[in-house]
Amino acid sequence: MNTELKFKTNLDCQHCVARVKPLLDKVSGIESWSVDLANPDKVLTVQSSGANAEQVIDTVEQAGFDISKI
Question: By CB distance 3.0 to 4.6 Å, which of 8, 21, 25, 58 could disulfide with 41?
Fold first, then answer.
């Protein structure tokens, strides 16, 4: 069963999204993800089939961005 996880980030442009893409794409258990750049909170939505919130947070922080679970 897939779980939807939502996070507030500071990914504010396509370049930022491109920097986290290879990292998030490698995380086992993430089926898909997207960032709503139009939202003031730059919401990252992750469809997970096993990845947990801590894995997503660690991955985005590795890329140098701020992230917190909503």
Answer: 8
Q: Could you tell me the residue range of the domain that residue 60 belongs to?
A: 3-69
Closest CA to 8 of 41, 40, 32: 41
**The predicted structure's pLDDT at residue 9:** 98
**Which among 3, 4, 2, 5 has a CA at the least distance from the CA of 69?**
5
C-alpha dihedral over 8, 36, 15, 19, to 10 degrees?
50
pTM: 0.94
Residue 50 is predicted with a pLDDT of 95
The 3-state secondary structure of 14-29, one letter per residue: HHHHHHHHHHHHHCCC
**How many domains are contained in the chain?**
1
